[in-house]
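Chapter summary example.
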Amino acid sequence: MDLTLDSVRMGETGLSVSEIAFGTWRFGRETAAGNLETDRETARDLLSTYEAAGGRFIDTADIYGGGESERWIGEWLDERDRSEFVIASKVYWPTRENDPNANGLNRKHLRRQLGLILDRLGTDYLDILYIHRWDEDTPGREFMSTLDEFVRSGRVHYLGASTFRPNAWRLARANERARQHDREPFTLTQPRHNLVDREIEGEYLEFCREQGLAVFPWSPLAQGFLTGKYTREDGLTGESTASDSDRWAEQYLTAENFETLDVVQAVAEEVDATPAQVALAYHRHHPDITAPLVGARTVSQLEENLRAATISLSDDQFDRLDGAKAGPFERFL
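The structure predicted for these 333 residues follows.
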């Protein structure tokens, strides 16, 4: 690609990451019809396309494709210098049937999964380990001490909390407990955020800003809605990434969201870009966002998304996008 992604500092850590991260949740994932969303060869092509654009920040999880995502990344990575890449994975979800200890953040599960993650990736360390969800059943002191053990051993460099569930007060309490006991705190988060999903605005983003936590939002294109492929006239067309199309349509195909999309498309015309590129450029210009996390089914789709790095928005354009839909607290003012 005729593009080289820049690097950005990961919050208040010493680590630099690519300004657009590449997410691999489709690798090895079976659709309801039993088809692979992304097969092994396509996964390799996507990873190589991201690399060719200067991308070095790859995100996966232990459950993606039943472990195939990590395995395919590991095979691809084996042909390269591991130290040049920042690799993130996640742990939480059940990994064995009929085993009550094979899920969540209990110490047994965490230790077992980290070993499996490293084996599949073919590496002796992870740059980032996220908790994929908050565990209501395991005491925070247990999983924070176990995660700290991983960092002290050198098998993990940084700790993160993924999704919106670990909200601000939970993160604050976990990090305060970690600091009181001289343990590693969470230094980055991965919540959902885009121009129509604004639930983290307010307390959550303010906490991340004040504490210097990096923020890497998933679903920056609102599961395809912000690409512009859905219209008021057509309703739900194409293939939704949601498992329940009716639920997806109810969430995204709303009058308010289409009004937001109108602004995205207007700005896209002004800067000669696609709506998807504008939605991603919004995150690149957002003062509280470190880097968006993008996925893709095809090489051409990934190339389009990565070219968002070349889009410059004026202050007026950013403000119009930012104000197109009210955040959760603005609704009540």
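To summarize the output: The chain is about 40% helix and 10% strand.
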